[in-house]
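call fold target=Putative transposase
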Amino acid sequence: MLAERKETYEQFKDDKKALARQTYTTNVVSGNIMLLDGFIKLPKLKLVKMKQHREIPSHHIIKSCTVSRTKTGKYYVSILTENEHQPIQTEYEHQPIQKQIQAVVGLDFSMNGLFVDSEEGKTANYPRFYRQALEKLAKKQRILSRRKKGSNRWHKQGLEVAKLHERIANQRKDFLHKESQN
């Protein structure tokens, strides 16, 4: 008795992976990663132009780099360094330093305002960035759902949706950073 043959069709790679976040990590081997005046030299790549946000101190040694690509096509490099500088020990370091506490403020989580201040009952004036962008997002996602999956226009619209999500995330990060610095 022969086993039944089942017809199989070609399996294509998932197109959603093209819209996903990608990362690549590489370790330093004999100085193959270098920072050169507004450029970074990475293995298997030539000099890549970059915006450096912080200067790496001279006593730090680069250990590895992680290059990540966001869904919107932006590239970021995270550089891992090791500090070989040993601080000089003094006789005063063994005694704990007492700091003067000026005021204590407790923050309680709040569903409708992010947090509530324990002293004055003040809440954060949290603008709901996602809810503000909900109509735009829904419209862009509706357009995306009408596109033929895998087509050029589908990829282009997926990028539009990803850009809007990234904008919302950046607005949240910016608000939280400003709120924590006040």
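return ok
The first strand starts at residue 22 and ends at 27. Helices lie at 129-132, 134-146, 152-181.
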